[in-house]
Amino acid sequence: MNYKTKKKIRLFGKILFVLYVFFLIYFLLFSDWYGRTGVMKEYHYNLVLFREIRRFWQYREQLGMFAMFTNLFGNVIIFIPFGFFMPMASSRRSLFATVFYSFGLSLCVETFQLITRVGSFDVDDLLLNTVGGLTGYLIFVICAAIRRRHDSKKKNKNRRRQG
After folding, report:
1. What are the C-alpha distances in Å from 88 to residues 11, 52, 59, 104, 150?
2. What are the distances in angstroms from CA 117 to CA 23, 30, 39, 98, 158?
3. What's the sign of the alpha-carbon dihedral 141, 146, 151, 156?
4. What is the pLDDT of residue 71?
């Protein structure tokens, strides 16, 4: 892959990353899909790791599969694009940086929810969002390895034709 193509892909990744962050902020903080249109009178928060995960799993029949799925898997899924686009849009491409920034963004969102009383602060969400960022990073690494392998095969094929 030539330099111009790499630069275009990197720019595209940066644009997608910015759009994703705007979507994420809207969805997590302002979307009325989860009833975030007003301030709650009685605010709930969770500072005990695995409490809400266990509760949603234990009461999945009463809460409904949709509520259980969106809480447990939705928090992971919504951060997968962050973990994928972060190394594409940044010069920091390490596992540590991606996990650190995934946790940091999630902490900012949770803290904002705590301060504004929109949504609820939950340490389980911090864990699940960070796992989503890590999953996205692993998908990025796999895709990058496949691309490098493809590029390497293409270069070797071109060398054989020329030689």
Report:
1. 9, 33, 39, 18, 18
2. 20, 12, 6, 28, 60
3. positive
4. 87
The contacts of residue 107 (CB under 8 Å, 6+ apart) are 126
Q: What b/e readout covers 57-79, taking b as 16+ CB neighbours within 10 angstroms?
A: eeeeeeeeeeebebbbebbbebb
Of how many residues is the chain composed? 163
Whole-structure pTM value: 0.84
Q: What is the pLDDT of residue 40?
A: 54
Region at 125 (left for phi over 0; alpha for psi -120 to 50; beta for the rest): alpha
Helix, strand, coil percent values for the chain (each to nearest 5): 80, 0, 20
Q: Hey, what are 8's tokens?
A: 């275009």
pLDDT tens figures, 21-51: 888 878 876 776 655 555 556 778 899 999 9
Task: Measure the CA–CA gap between 39 and 88, rounded to whole angstroms.
Answer: 36
Residues of the chain with pLDDT under 70: 1, 29, 32-41, 163
57-to-25, 62, 67, 104, 132 alpha-carbon distances in Å: 26, 10, 10, 26, 18
